[in-house]
Amino acid sequence: MNMKDFKEELYKLIDDALKEDVGDGDHSTLSCIPADTKGHVVLKIKQDGVLAGVDVAREIFLYKEPSSKFTALKNDGDEIKKGEIGFEVEASVHTILKCERLVLNCMQRMSGIATLTKSYADKLKSHKTKILDTRKTTPNFRLLEKEAVRIGGGTNHRFGLFDMIMLKDNHIDFCGSLEQAIERVAVYVQQYKPNLKIEVETRRLEDIKKIVEVGKGKVFRIMLDNFSADQIAEAIKLIDGNFETEASGGINLDNIEQYAKTGVDYISVGSLIHQAQSLDLSLKAVIILYDQEK
Q: Is 246 a catalytic residue?
């Protein structure tokens, strides 16, 4: 996704999230703080990990108040320690308090994902294999969850159903056969979206043999789903470099290197996102310029 599209989707996310949270007004703030009050807050880091969402926080504050002053003290992808400060913001107190929870929700979630992703990516440093995310994301938050994976050192798989064709077991079963599914998809792609890549999920070595026979020039990647590491090594010999390869299913921090040693191109891990634990962060007021006589 290019930067222009990313920002457009981010602004939509911000608008929807604030509409959900603020409703007809932040009455806690409106009732006790004058609208012209200015404030200064810092992001306090309360847990070690990998920081993600600094750029997102900047966009949130500047989107809602363009005159805000945002000073980043840490960058996305930085390893952080408890007690450090991530950034400072000077803005209207109304803007700060309205955006506080959205900023923290995004950054805590993103930092948790980036931290877990880095743990996986570090395991692959001495291998050619790259770590992929999946579509197992939180509805309407995929944009930032996948960005967090990227920040943590992972690689984004397809963003949705629209930017890659993946023939999974249900597609193949409903279609009737693996060969028929590949042929139909190849015709569809040529007619409607010639640049759309095709990936096919396999469940057994016999599936791979069929793809090798009928898939050249059509399929670009073969997913090896729930294969053991030994089975993947055998599958890669059959594939012989004619297709990209992706291992998926049952792979975790304890066994990922065993799979990487097979020479598989990619390993996809849904738990990068759906099992990540949010990092503990908070926004803390430093100075609030408040005229008691108003």
A: no
Q: Is 23 helix (H, G, I), strand (E, B) or coil?
A: coil
For tokens 């397809």, the residue is 158
- Residue 291 above 80 pLDDT? no
Active site residue 225: yes
pLDDT tens string 139-178? 999 999 999 999 999 999 999 999 999 999 999 999 999 9
Read off the DSSP letter of residue 266. Answer: E
123 a catalytic residue: no
Residue type, 179: E
Q: Give the list of residues 6+ apart from residue 98 with CB closer than 8 angstroms, or none.
A: 18, 22, 26, 29, 64
Number of residues that this document lists for the chain: 294
Tell me whether strands 221-225 and 244-248 are parallel, antiparallel or unpaired: parallel
221 in catalytic set:
no
Report the DSSP beta bridge partners of residue 287: 40
pLDDT recorded at residue 236: 97
CA distances to 68, 101, 195, 199, 220 from 165, rounded to whole Å, are 43, 37, 11, 6, 10
Is 218 designated active site? no
DSSP run (H or E) holding 205: helix 205-214
Task: Return the structure tokens found at 195.
Answer: 């640049």
Under a CB-based contact definition with an 8 Å cutoff, are residues 136 and 142 in contact?
no
Residue of 44, 58, 158, 168 with catalytic role: 168
The pLDDT confidence band at residue 287, using thresholds 50, 70 and 90, is low
Q: What is the mean pLDDT of the chain?
A: 95
As a whole number of angstroms, the distance between CA 228 and CA 174 comes to: 26
Smallest Cα–Cα separation from 106: which of 148, 44, 68, 69? 148
> Does the pLDDT value for residue 182 go beyond 50?
yes
Region of residue 280 (phi > 0: left; psi between -120 and 50: alpha; otherwise: beta)? beta
289 has a pLDDT exceeding 50: no
